[in-house]
Amino acid sequence: MRISSDFTQIPDEYGKYADEAGRLDGVPVVSFPFIVEDVPQDCTVLHWELVDPDSIPVCGFQWIHWSVANLSVAELGPEEGTVHVPADLSRRQQRVAPGAIQGRTSAASPFVGKSNPEVTMRYNGPQPPDRSHEYLLRVWAGSRPLDGLREGFWLNEMERALRAPHAYQAYATLLLPSRA
Questions:
Q1: Torsion 119-117-112-103 (CA) sign
Q2: What torsion, rounded to 10 degrees, do the Cα atoms 89, 16, 139, 145 define?
Q3: What is the four-CA torsion angle of 70, 73, 75, 78, rounded to 10 degrees?
Q4: Model pTM?
Q5: Rounded percentage of the chain residues whose pLDDT exceeds 90
Q6: Residue 151's closest CA among 128, 117, 179, 178?
Q7: Cβ atoms of residues 136 and 53 within 8 Å
Q8: 48 with 139: CB under 8 angstroms?
Q9: Which of 8, 11, 69, 108 is the most exposed place for a label (fewest CB within 10 A)?
């Protein structure tokens, strides 16, 4: 399995330089598109996380930008073995992929102070304050939904569910930089 995109750096409209129409409470909220290819035939759901390991020196922890669990491959995969995740899926998820659930971002931390669920439980675009950062997109494919997760789950809950036997059959990672 592999992840691909039409860009090698997260485009401005999905991050720090997004225009006002793509922001909410000052946070970029339009998620970027990507493709998951070579999804095994017996896999019916995808789960993913987008995190920023380069944020550790800035804020003391890896920033969670987006997490999704239990997205049906059939909802986004017209080609066998390929899933096209469209731009702005995070805000359109209820219409496009209603079976999927989204987790909390680091904006939900009491140290950050955001409270709007459209920001705290949806995609938060990169806004590196110090230099260009590299963002890690990890995607898992499995044959059944992860148990025990609800809308607004914390990332550690999804990662714990992924450690269960037979939780996933395939895994892929893509590293994407964003400009400062």
A1: negative
A2: -40
A3: 170
A4: 0.96
A5: 93
A6: 117
A7: yes
A8: yes
A9: 8
H-helix segments, 21-154: 56-59, 73-76, 89-96, 117-120
Residue with tokens 């999905």: 14
Chain position carrying tokens 């990672």: 173
Q: Which two tokens stand for residue 148?
A: 């025990």
Burial classification of residue 8, based on how many CB atoms lie within 10 Å of its CB (0-12 exposed, 13-18 middle, 19 or more buried):
exposed
Q: Dihedral, CA atoms, 31, 34, 39, 45, nearest 10 degrees?
A: 10
Count of other CB atoms within 10 angstroms of residue 175 = 11
pLDDT digits (tens, 9 = 90+) for 94-116: 999 999 999 999 999 988 889 99
